[in-house]
Write a structure and sequence with these properties.
The protein is of the alpha/beta class. Helix content is 42%, strand content 20%. The protein is built from nine helices and twelve strands. Strands 2-1-3-4-5 form a five-stranded parallel beta sheet, with helices on both faces. A four-stranded antiparallel beta sheet has the order 6-7-8-9, with helices on one face. The longest helix has 18 residues, at 203-220.
């Protein structure tokens, strides 16, 4: 029997909440709902959901703070739902811990497609981590040890608290080394598509990759001017920084 997938909808608008609940239910999720930010944070902690849809305009706590609080205890995929079209709001949502976003009004089919793309990406449970560590060798680069099987990244003996999207981007660069990956390449990787599939990647998708890479760089303590791990190739994309003998 396949494992039950849990979805959490944090939304104060009853019509939208019901719409999202139906979409996730049809996608095979056991769906729970919350109409306030505080209730959503509590539910995320208790339910350990796989996917969370999060309205940015909640009545008690704004969605940015809700995302930050959820990220303290959960690695769930977070899709921000916002009526605001301003780029700044989108970037703030991703920086607060969101993985993706949709602007209202959105098509139910698009929401389902985003969720299903996320769920094709692996999620290591705590029970499988010890097994994965036995069979999955770590990849080390300049003092950073990354395990794809256990989905851990350890720097100087401390495990980094990365979101799933940040981890996937880091792993993508480790896998391809000094080959430059464009922002479109990495956006497709986050959809679990081949790099050369040629599917459409929007400017917003590429900008989201930039924000996630910026968050990842901050958590690594990496420098844009003298990178140890994430090297920006101006006007092209990103690649792994050269190895160091130190």
């Amino acid at each position: 029997m396949s494992e039950v997938r849990v979805g959490l909808v944090i939304e104060d608008d009853q019509d939208i909440r019901e719409l999202v609940r139906v979409v996730l239910s049809q996608a095979g999720f056991d769906v729970h709902v919350a109409s306030t930010g505080s209730a959503g944070v509590t539910s995320a902690r208790e339910l350990n959901p796989d996917v969370i849809t999060l309205d940015l305009g909640l009545p008690d706590i704004d969605g940015f703070e809700v995302a930050r609080q959820i990220r303290k205890s959960s690695d769930a995929y977070i899709i921000m739902l916002t009526a605001r079209a301003e780029e700044l709001d989108t970037l703030m949502g991703l920086e607060a811990g969101g993985d993706d976003y949709l602007t209202k009004p959105f098509r139910p089919r698009e929401l389902r497609a985003r969720v299903e793309a996320m769920m094709r990406r692996p999620r290591a449970s705590s029970e499988s981590r010890s097994v994965a560590e036995e069979v999955d060798p770590e990849v080390s680069h300049n003092g950073l040890a990354v395990s794809a099987g256990s989905r851990t990244a350890v720097l100087n003996g401390t495990e980094l608290k990365l979101t799933r999207t940040e981890f996937d981007l880091l792993l993508a660069l480790l896998e391809t080394g000094r080959i430059v990956r464009t922002k479109a390449d990495l956006a497709r990787r986050l959809r679990n598509e081949p790099y050369d599939v040629g599917s459409y990647v929007s400017d917003a998708d590429e900008r989201a990759v930039e924000v996630h890479m910026g968050n990842l760089r901050k958590k690594l303590g990496d420098s844009i001017q003298a990178p140890r791990w994430l090297e920006t190739v101006r006007g092209v994309g990103y690649r792994l920084a050269p190895g160091s003998s130190n």
